[in-house]
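Exercise 7b. C-alpha cells:
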C-alpha cells in the first residue's frame, strides 16, 4: 500500500529547505513538531500555495498556475490533475477532520487524515489507510496551534510529535487562496460520492479554478474562495462505469447549479444559514462545470457552466 504521508514528506522537505523562496516560516514547537507558517506571520505566496496543494494530495497529484479567461477578465488560476483520484482527494486532500482541543478549532486536511482515519467510513469505502511514522496535516487557520493541539493530532495519528508536520494557511492569505482553489477536483469527487458514485470508479481527474482575490476579512475571504469553485471551477473525470443512463443522470446532478442556493454569493448563503455549514444545501458544494468520459463506452457527459457574472461580483470586479 502506498503511503500518502511518506510520499508527501519529500515535498514538505522541499518547502522547509527552500523556505525563503516559498515565503514560509518554519519553527520547532515545544513538543518537537514542525510548524510551517504560510500566511500568519509571513507573506507566503503563489508558489507555496501550489506546493501545499500537492502536499495535501499526498504527493499523488500535480498542480500549476496559469492565467485563464473568464468573460472579459483574465485571472490567475490553478490547474490540478491526479491519476489516483480516490486516494489523493478523499484519502488526503478532503478537509474531513474536525479538530477541536479546548478553544482551538480547525478542519484538518492532508495526508495525516489517512492515519487518523477521519472519517473512518470514508476510508472503508475507498479501501485505503496509511501506515507511516510521519504525519502531515494542513490547518486552514489564522493562528498557530498550541502544544496541546499538536499532541492530540500526533496521538490520533499514532506518531511521535517530533514526526508531525503542520502546515498553516489562513483563508485571507495568498497561499491559502491558491490551495483552496486547488481543491476543485476534490470538490467534484466529493459531490459525485455524495450522489452515490463509487469513487474507486474514477480513474483520472483534472480541473482548474481561478485563485480568489484576497480580502482581509475572514468572512469575505471565505466567501470568495468558495465562489471561485462554485461558479468558475471546471473539472474533467475519466471513469469506468457500467450504466451510461445512470451516469448521465448523476452528471446532471453534480454541478453547483443543481442546488437551490445557486446564483447567490456564498457569503449571502452562509449568513442566511446563521453561519452554520450544515444548514446550507449540500448540493451547492460542487464545481461549476463537470465533464465525465466513460471509458467503458467512450461516451462523454457534461453539465453546468462557468457563471462569469457571479464570479465577477464575488471578486469585486465591475
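Sequence design result:
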Amino acid at each position: 500500500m502506498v503511503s500518502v504521508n511518506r510520499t508527501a514528506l519529500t515535498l514538505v522537505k522541499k518547502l522547509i529547505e527552500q523556505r525563503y523562496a516559498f515565503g514560509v516560516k518554519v519553527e520547532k514547537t515545544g513538543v518537537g513538531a514542525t510548524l510551517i507558517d504560510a500566511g500568519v506571520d509571513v507573506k507566503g505566496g503563489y508558489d507555496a500555495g501550489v506546493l501545499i496543494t500537492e502536499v495535501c494530495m499526498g504527493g499523488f497529484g500535480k498542480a500549476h498556475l496559469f492565467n485563464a479567461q473568464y468573460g472579459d477578465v483574465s485571472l490567475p488560476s490553478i490547474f490540478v490533475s491526479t491519476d489516483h483520484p480516490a486516494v489523493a482527494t478523499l484519502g488526503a486532500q478532503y478537509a474531513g477532520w474536525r479538530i477541536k482541543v479546548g478553544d482551538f478549532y480547525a478542519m484538518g486536511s492532508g495526508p495525516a487524515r489517512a492515519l487518523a482515519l477521519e472519517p473512518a467510513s470514508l476510508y472503508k469505502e475507498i479501501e485505503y489507510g496509511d501506515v507511516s511514522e510521519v504525519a502531515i496535516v494542513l490547518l486552514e487557520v489564522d493562528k498557530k496551534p498550541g502544544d496541546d493541539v499538536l499532541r492530540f493530532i500526533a496521538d490520533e495519528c499514532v506518531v511521535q510529535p517530533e514526526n508531525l508536520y503542520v502546515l498553516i494557511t489562513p483563508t485571507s492569505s495568498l497561499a491559502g487562496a491558491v490551495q483552496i482553489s486547488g481543491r476543485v477536483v476534490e470538490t467534484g469527487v466529493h459531490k459525485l460520492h455524495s450522489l452515490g458514485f463509487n469513487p474507486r470508479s474514477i480513474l483520472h481527474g483534472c480541473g482548474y479554478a481561478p485563485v480568489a482575490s484576497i480580502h482581509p476579512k475572514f468572512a469575505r475571504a471565505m466567501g470568495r474562495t468558495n465562489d471561485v469553485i462554485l461558479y468558475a471551477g471546471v473539472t474533467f473525470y475519466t471513469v469506468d462505469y457500467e450504466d451510461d443512463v445512470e451516469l448521465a443522470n448523476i452528471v446532471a446532478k453534480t454541478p453547483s447549479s443543481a442546488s437551490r442556493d445557486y446564483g447567490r454569493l456564498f457569503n449571502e448563503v452562509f449568513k442566511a444559514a446563521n453561519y452554520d455549514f450544515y444548514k446550507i444545501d449540500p448540493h451547492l458544494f460542487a464545481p461549476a462545470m463537470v465533464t465525465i468520459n466513460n471509458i467503458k463506452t467512450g461516451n462523454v457527459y457534461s453539465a453546468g457552466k462557468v457563471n462569469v457574472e457571479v464570479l465577477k461580483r464575488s471578486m469585486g470586479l465591475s
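Instructor comment: The chain has a mean pLDDT of 97. The longest strand covers residues 73-82.
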